[in-house]
Amino acid sequence: MIIPGWQNSGDGHWQTRWQAALPDAVRVEQDDWDDAHRDAWVARLGEAIAACSEPPVLVAHSLGVLTVVEWAAETGGAGVRGALLVTPPDMDNVDEPGITGYAPIPTARLPFPAILVGSRSDQWMTFERAAELAAAWGARLHDAGDAGHVNTDAGYGPWPEGEKLLAELR
């Protein structure tokens, strides 16, 4: 299950490429990609998970990661096989117009296996903060190095390293 962040993942983004390449992949669609309200985005994720015939592996990027974590904190997170959580934004320390309700970030342990990908040059979250959240969530931290926000702007259309991480969870 592909869970993009704020403003969606465009045509060249690794999430869009994976969705096209994986026959069983579905994207969680939001009503408004530019105006992210926590409650609406979490509800939409919950609907998508409930519609699955088998427990999904969640592939979340940016604000999609926080949507997953918020959903798990709100519902208990049952029915998910695992999650790849890629470069979440630190909404506790970032104020972005168009994003509401995502602070404070939940720090409860996730009830499913998870890998958090952190970057040492992500403008939205320091690697040290990503490490803190990975520990709190019980997620394995993967150091992507100097990878920016692991998006198209940072050069991530194809992302073979991410495909290996996803294979571990699948």
Describe the fold and architecture.
The chain is globular, with a radius of gyration of 14 Å. Helices cover 32% and strands 15% of the residues. It has 170 residues and is of the alpha/beta class. α2 (38-50) crosses α3 (63-75).
- Our estimate of the beta-strand percent is 5-15%
Could you report the average pLDDT, rounded to the nearest whole number? 95
**How does the major sheet shape up?**
5 strands, parallel
Order of helices and strands: EHEHEHEEEHEH
GO molecular function: hydrolase activity
Pfam families: Ser_hydrolase
Protein name: Alpha/beta hydrolase
Q: What is the element layout, followed by pairings?
A:
Layout: E1 2-3, H1 14-21, E2 36-37, H2 38-50, E3 57-61, H3 63-75, E4 82-86, E5 99-100, E6 114-118, H4 127-137, E7 140-143, H5 160-169
Parallel strand pairs: 1-3, 2-5, 3-4, 4-6, 6-7
Helix pairs in contact: 2-3
InterPro entries: AB_hydrolase_fold, RBBP9/YdeN
Pfam families: Ser_hydrolase (PF06821)
GO molecular function: hydrolase activity
